[in-house]
């Protein structure tokens, strides 16, 4: 065998070996393309609600009570971690209720207003301004507030304190402070008393 033939044979063997090493990557690429296709199907799915329209029927006689009854929830990716467990409460029209936990959504000019960590990114002064505006807006609105920053919720008509997806305390700010339970502990941690004293001054 000549030296050229030997080199060609070695090159061929090296190429076949390299091609064989790419097989796992080809499989991974295929799986990624399949996964991406499923995701894009969800993204491209037409919405049943046209969110770009500003016209439509506005019901003035809408009953704005909210009722949660035995609600259980966990994320599909972590089904073993409960977010809500047997959650039950009622909110009457015109009341504002604060959940010290998790949730979502903000609606403009609504009968029902949902606020999810609405002031969490604001400094103290900006939060006070926004909070006063929200209080004026909420007088004729049923408001559901989700917050970890307790200064946002201390003026709510009803505060629901949740731990590991379950309601552990319920009441207004003053009654929960007097009870000296979990909410009281959170308030001490966030030093709300100091904020209240500054506002009274």
Automatic annotation (TrEMBL):
PANTHER family: ATP-BINDING CASSETTE TRANSPORTER, ATP-DEPENDENT PERMEASE MDL1, MITOCHONDRIAL. It is found in: Membrane. Keywords: Membrane, Repeat, Transmembrane, Transmembrane helix, Transport. GO terms for cellular component: mitochondrial inner membrane. Its main location: membrane. It is a multi-pass membrane protein. The keyword Zinc does not apply. GO terms for biological process: oligopeptide export from mitochondrion. InterPro entries: ABC1_TM_sf, P-loop_NTPase, Type_1_exporter. This is ABC transporter domain-containing protein. GO terms for molecular function: ABC-type oligopeptide transporter activity; ATP binding.
């Amino acid at each position: 065998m000549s030296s050229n033939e030997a080199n060609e044979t070695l090159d061929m063997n090296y190429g076949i070996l390299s091609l064989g090493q790419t097989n796992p990557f080809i499989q991974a690429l295929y799986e990624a393309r399949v996964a991406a296709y499923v995701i894009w199907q969800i993204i491209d799915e037409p919405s049943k609600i046209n969110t770009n329209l500003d016209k439509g029927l506005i019901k003035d006689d809408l009953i704005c009570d909210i009722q949660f009854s035995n609600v259980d929830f966990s994320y599909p990716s972590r089904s073993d971690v409960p977010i809500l467990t047997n959650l039950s409460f009622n909110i009457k029209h015109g009341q504002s209720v604060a959940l010290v936990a998790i949730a979502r959504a903000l609606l403009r000019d609504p009968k029902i207003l949902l606020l999810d960590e609405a002031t969490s990114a604001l400094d103290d002064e900006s939060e006070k301004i926004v909070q006063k505006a929200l209080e004026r807006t909420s007088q004729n609105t049923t408001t559901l507030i989700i917050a970890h920053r307790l200064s946002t919720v201390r003026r709510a008509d009803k505060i629901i304190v949740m731990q590991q997806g379950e309601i552990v305390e319920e009441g207004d700010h003053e009654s929960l402070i007097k009870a000296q339970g979990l909410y009281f502990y959170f308030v001490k941690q966030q030093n709300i008393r100091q904020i209240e004293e500054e506002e009274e001054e």
